[in-house]
Write a structure and sequence with these properties.
Mean pLDDT: 88
Distance between the termini: 62 Å
Radius of gyration: 34 Å
Order of helices and strands: HEEHHHEHHEEHEEH
Shape: extended
Helix content: 40-55%
Structural class: alpha+beta
Number of strands: 7
């Protein structure tokens, strides 16, 4: 354990090292020994390029002190870790396997970026959905709906009611502009599915839930602070099959993953055939 005198001597030594390292007249500072942990040594040259161009001697001293402190603790941990390695653990083999994995993964990524067609057509998505839709049974109800949450008192309330009562395309465009200006939250895209609890989370607790949504077709209500407008367009209950539009991103990801696997398998087979043709492989 280093006492106060030892720490003072270390600080003096480090300051001396910094003086040498920061001396601009010297192109190559002396390679001083900074610390030793068992048979491992840390030299000044190991800290090369760690000092900012405008660093003062005090700055450099702090950098060295911090680095030495971290290095000592890291090396002590590594020493103990190596002492406790299982006798049957082949580190060299693990390193070789990891290196091969990194190289292979990097090459596969290059192949994918260069050769994989990332366009997934509607026909492909529909085909995937028809073959796999039984896997997409809903665990919670989902809905298509119109919804507006707006602070009371409602601005231009009569105009809002007229637009809300007749949800034609032109009115929806005007409603969207209105909501962008006044609404706290709104949903006016009729093709997007939402979980019931997501819509319910921006209403007073219990207004719509998985258990009561079937009876909440349309309503307008106020809690004094906000006014809520809700219209249910379509409901899919628990255990029903999710529509394609709801799981489209998952389907797209799966199709592309399958395409990637096929691409890499074809590449493996092409390389095998080429090596066989050129006599670059032998099977004994």
């Amino acid at each position: 354990m280093i006492g106060k005198r030892g720490l003072s001597m270390l600080a003096f030594l480090l300051l001396l090292i910094v003086y040498v390292a920061c001396d601009r007249k010297s192109d190559q500072p002396g390679d001083r020994l900074l610390a030793r942990v068992f048979n491992r040594e840390l030299h000044l040259s190991d800290l090369e390029n760690m000092f900012p161009e405008q660093a003062t001697r005090t700055d450099s001293l702090l950098i060295i002190q911090a680095y030495v402190s971290r290095w000592i603790r890291e090396e002590l941990l590594m020493y103990e870790a190596e002492k406790n390695l299982p006798p049957d653990l082949n580190i060299d083999q693990l390193v070789r396997d990891y290196r091969r994995s990194l190289i292979r993964n990097n090459y596969e990524q290059v192949l994918v970026e260069q050769l994989l067609d990332s366009t997934v057509t509607k026909t492909e998505l529909q085909d995937f959905y028809e073959k796999n839709k039984e896997q997409y049974e809903l665990e919670t109800p989902i809905i298509r709906c119109f919804f507006i949450k707006i602070a009371a008192p409602v601005p231009k309330a009569d105009s809002l009611l007229q637009l809300w009562a007749k949800p034609r395309a032109a009115n929806l465009t005007k409603l969207e502009a209105y909501c962008q200006k006044y609404a706290t939250a709104h949903v006016l895209v009729d093709s997007i599915w939402h979980k019931v609890d997501v819509i319910g989370s921006v209403m007073p607790k219990g207004t719509i839930t998985a258990d009561n949504i079937a009876s909440k077709r349309e309503f307008r209500q106020s809690d004094g602070q906000f006014v809520y407008y809700f219209r249910l367009l379509e409901l899919k209950n628990r255990k029903e099959i999710a529509p394609l539009s709801y799981i489209e991103q998952q389907a797209r990801t799966f199709v592309l993953h399958k395409r990637k696997l096929d691409l890499l398998q074809r590449k493996r087979e092409d390389l095998y055939e080429l090596a066989l043709k050129k006599g670059n492989l032998e099977i004994f």
